Amino acid sequence: MSLLALFVTVCSVQAQELPKPSPYAEVMQRIGLTDITVKYSRPGVKERTIFGDLEAYGEIWRTGANSATKIELSTDANIGGTDVRAGTYSIFSIPGETEWKVMINTDTKASEGSYKAENNVAEITLKGVKNAMVETMTFSFANVSEEEAQLVFEWENIKWMIPIKVAVSEQAKSNIKDKIDELENAYGVYNSSARYYLDHNLDLDQALEWSTKSVAISAKFWNVYTLSLIQHAKGDVKAALATAEKSLALSKEADYKPYIKRNTENIAKWSKK
Questions:
Q1: Are 210 and 192 in contact (CB under 8 A)?
Q2: Domains in the chain and their CATH numbers?
Q3: Can you give the chain as a three-state secondary structure string?
Q4: What is the pLDDT of residue 8?
Q5: Residue 175 — pLDDT band, cuts 50, 70, 90?
Q6: What is the chain's Cα-based Rg?
Q7: What is the C-alpha to C-alpha distance for residues 110 and 91, in angstroms, rounded to an integer?
């Protein structure tokens, strides 16, 4: 066999994909406005004694097969009583006969040999309870509500659960504020765009559309004034006068003398036509 043929054969063998004894899995749950995803490989019992034998008590474990199990948080969350920032973390654990320790670690590429406790952002001590036999290691979510859920681990005859909570009310209030701020900013953008079109003799129909939207979002003396100018430029004197009167009233409420003067002058001038 030539060297080239041998190289191609080796590459082909390396590229071959075969079923894995511990297949990859993902489970995702939305809690309130937070997406939580657990990515892991699922080993089987296969007639073995797992905890206390294959996975020794008191020894660090990557909580799954192949690479360490990972948890992704789309927003900040509270895991087992500890606040954890949005991001991706590995899940390590230390099995015990009655008590387990579960660690949320920033090193997503760590293994049992490279795990460092100083990278933990949360350490949760919990009870490992006896459970019906589960052949293939499983993560799931239970007791899901708008603000919390439990991350459930099951394998062999052991089960444990970690409470996860999210500040959904705070997130919702923040989203509301962001949308209001977006609208608040939008009316300013609509007004400045309309004024630019007016000042540069561009499409007055477009300027009127933007100016009308700005006033509809939030009527201020300055954007109502812009609307009156555009209406007048389009020849709608009656509408321009009514809008100028509104801008004048808003200017007086704000005690903003420059716009009181401008509106008063425009009303006097336009009324003569």
A1: no
A2: 19-166 (no CATH), 169-271 (1.25.40.10)
A3: CCHHHHHHHHHHHHHCCCCCCCCEEEEEEEECCEEEEEEEECCECCCCCCECCCECCCCCECCCCCCCEEEEECCCEEECCEEECCEEEEEEEECCCCEEEEEEECCCCCCCCCCCHHHEEEEEEEECEEEEEEEEEEEEEECCCCCEEEEEEEEEEEEEEEEEECCHHHHHHHHHHHHHHHHHHHHHHHHHHHHHHHHCCCCHHHHHHHHHHHHHHCCCHHHHHHHHHHHHHCCCHHHHHHHHHHHHHHHHHHCCHHHHHHHHHHHHHHHCC
A4: 52
A5: confident
A6: 33
A7: 10
| Calpha distance 88→34 (Å, rounded) | 13
Q: Model-level pTM?
A: 0.66
Measured distance CA(124)–CA(269) in Å, rounded = 76
